[in-house]
Design a protein that fits this description.
Number of strands: 7
Largest sheet: 4 strands, antiparallel
Strand order of the largest sheet: 1-2-3-4
Helix content: 10-25%
Number of helices: 1
Amino acid sequence: MAHYEFTASRVSGNGNFVFPDKLIITDEFVVYHKARVIGYKETRVRLSAVGSISVRQHVLFADIIIESKGGNAIVARGFTRSDASHIRDLLDSD
């Protein structure tokens, strides 16, 4: 069972200093995890429901936008450009 975990850089801004965005990709799901002072936000999307993947590249970091076929979107910010490319490649291959 494949399991990939990507954590955004703490120096990227966007609230990542204390609680960085995290994307977990398994054989069945893409999981977006964002911790908070109290609790966390977690969004799961089945790989079969992923409609599109976009990468918004900035000077040093990149944002990942994953849209589901139902119209919901996950926006994970502050990943390295190489991690963003790897995430896109993993999700495009399915």
